Amino acid sequence: MRSAEASRGALLALGTAVVSGVAVFVSKFGTQAVPDPFVYTTARNLYVGVLLVGLLALLALTRRRGGGRPAGRIGRADAARLALIAVVGGSVPFLLFFWGLSLTPAPVAGFIQKTQFLWVALLAGPLLGEALGRWQALALVALLAGTLLQSPVTARSPGAGEALVLAATLLWSVETVLVRRTLRTVDPLSGAAARMAGGAVVLLGFLAVSGRLPVLAGLTPAQWGWVAGPGLLLLAYVLTWYHALRRAPGAVVAGVLTLGAPITALLDAVFVTHRWSPGQALGGALLAAGAAVVVLALWRAAAVAPPAPGARKEYARAG
Fold first, then answer.
1. Which domain holds residue 221?
2. Where does the pLDDT of residue 7 fall: very low under 50, low under 70, confident under 90, or very high at 90 and above?
3. Are 317 and 69 in contact (CB under 8 A)?
4. 249 near 180, Cβ under 8 Å?
5. How many domains is the chain built from?
6. Are 163 and 100 in contact (CB under 8 A)?
7. CA dihedral 254, 255, 258, 263 (to 10 degrees)
8. Which has the higher per-residue pLDDT, 127 or 300?
9. Distance (Å, whole) CA 268 – CA 207
10. Interval 299-316 mean pLDDT
11. Could you count the other beta carbons within 10 Å of the beta carbon of residue 60?
């Protein structure tokens, strides 16, 4: 049973990686259409948040008309976790990342952000009890090497930009662990809606304080088109990612998600640069091997942590 659940989680994570790779590639063009990155990420997150809240409302209405049970109530502890997820996952790290990106070269920022799987693995052990075996540790080394080859960076003294990007990466890592814990009793759709809609509220507050709300209000239909298209990819990303975290350990999901990087690089090579370096090819191979070892080590060691007592019952009632 646990292996079957892990299999579904790993497959969902693989789907998330594919969506992520395409989304990052497409979002490059979106940031050209909406040059202010803070306005762009707020518009996109707001769009996805509205869609997710709409899906929740539609699901509740369908259940009511069909005579089904309404979704289970969310307790105070879970509500507090969802609010925290909106802050540490859906808003603040986006601001920190884009601020840091304005102060440091993109390859450096990209490399730091892609080390998220490492921080998740380090946090998941003490906080979730997800043990890291020797094969998984070896896989993390392969993932780190593949990440470095995919995003080659030159040596430089760390500064404020690197610190901001690292802070954003650490917050997203904390979010992964927090989501893994919260989804024991909260369905993924509710978690994703809280993350995106709640985060959008925080981002709107930032735009108001920084005087950027008129820019958001003045977006043209063409610009909103570049919000809506990538926004649908973000919607798919969040839903598949949260469903994957519901079923598989955070370190496994984060490890598989590193496959998004070579997918983005491949799309860029085919449609933009028309170049594919041996280093990128080797890096992609290492990432694929590392992700495969992470999943295989999980299954071999039966390391999937069982849900908390009553979690499946609560989840069934909530979902």
1. 2-318
2. confident
3. yes
4. yes
5. 1
6. yes
7. -110
8. 127
9. 31
10. 44
11. 13
